Amino acid sequence: MGHWPDGSGPFFRLFGELKALNELHQRAFGEDLFGTVVHPKEFGWLLRPSQREFDRFVHDLDKLLSDNIRHKALTAAGVPMKDDKGRAMGTLQRLELLLARSGVKEIDRKRMMKPLYDVRQARQKPAHDTTPNKTDRSLTLKQIELLSDATTSLNTLRHFWQRHPDNKDHKLQTEYLDNEKLYRM
Question: Rounded to two decimals, what is the model's pTM?
């Protein structure tokens, strides 16, 4: 209808949160948490909301989230590579263990981590299934919801990291992330 929002969009916010988390983790543990915080040019809104395009978006989002978390950063934070039974842990499990060791209540940890696990699960489904490539306008709404939930999770993690003793007095330039002029779409 000719309305152009003057706030920040969800992709800007996602990458802003990744950058902020890297800065905070670097100050606290001497390592960037994420391997990359660069917005790939092909990562954006579904222009033709087909199942194939949505699956590609989910795949790319998971690569930017759980696949992008650096094991070296979690090791620097003192998180072991293996669980109590000697099994290797993935990045999301290790991140959740870091939160647990930092005193985050289980209900809060689950709330923070659920969107990241949801993205991981949504990525795995098409990898193990064959689905026809159909066009479905509701996929755009699913994309908005998935992106919004993941970004909210990163925002919550950022607020947690800001309370770390090495970050307490650090002024992180995040007013653009906490601004009410953020829009979902």
Answer: 0.88
